[in-house]
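User: Some background: our group keeps a shared notebook of sequences we're curious about, and every so often someone picks one and asks for a predicted structure to add to the entry. Today it's my turn. The entry only has the sequence so far, pasted here. Could you supply the structure so I can complete it?
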Amino acid sequence: MAKNELDSLKDIFKSVDALNPDAEVLEASTLSTADEWIDTGSYALNAIISGSMYKGIPSGRITGFAGPSMAGKTLIMNKIMANAQKKGYIPVIWDSEVAVDKRSAENVGMDTSRVKYYPVETVEDCRNQMSMFLDNVIKARESNPDLKFIATIDSLGNLASAKEIKDAASGKDAADVGQRAKCLCPDTLVKTKEGIKKLKDVCEGEEVLTHLGRYRKIKNKWNVSHESYLVIKTKSGKEIKLSKEHRLLVKRENQLVYVEAQKIIQTDKLVSLAL
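Assistant: Of course. Here's the predicted structure to add to the notebook entry:
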């Protein structure tokens, strides 16, 4: 449909245009025009995203990568940030999986001394931190318009939501986004500042050792029933009893990845903290 045809239909769009002053014909829109591209490190992926082997992801846009565990999403993200640095961007990472590490980032050419890293656990924390960051960037660019950042989340799928916590607390066996609640057996041993305790004996407000090697206060505690649990037995003879959807940090093919308990294979190595 040509522009003059749209003009002839202006009565249809008039009331909607009043609600959105940025409305215009796509042909003339500058909002949808990418003025810079960042190489993904893969000619094939560049071509799929941008139509050119030599472009990549567009600046000023939100780009998402989805795929199964071990598909290489973090590797692609690291390469994109390394290439973005060459164009003057400062990478900022929100990591919910402990998937981003210094060595892997440096192996693809990233200068880790110029990367800001935020470990994060919940959707709300990630949202609030990113919103504050973006507000600060907008203010900073008023005096320094050449500032450029590339912000990443790795990964959205591993962030727990407020709804997920609320559903679990109310006894529902389904978590947000159609996933079941991920749980450990009540007798699972955890390390608190007061010593080793069974999970069922830990109370809200106590500090427990997290996967990041630091102590954090428990904000919520709830009981969720499961029809059955999986039992994972390690080479040393230790057993872990947990729901099949519970994610574990493992080393697989020399990479650290989170894997659902039901997808653990015998060659995986469970990651634990040296205490």
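Suggested note for the entry: Residues 162-270 form a domain with the Endonuclease - Pi-scei; Chain A, domain 1 fold (CATH 2.170.16.10). Helices lie at 3-7, 10-19, 43-50, 73-86, 102-107, 123-143, 162-169.
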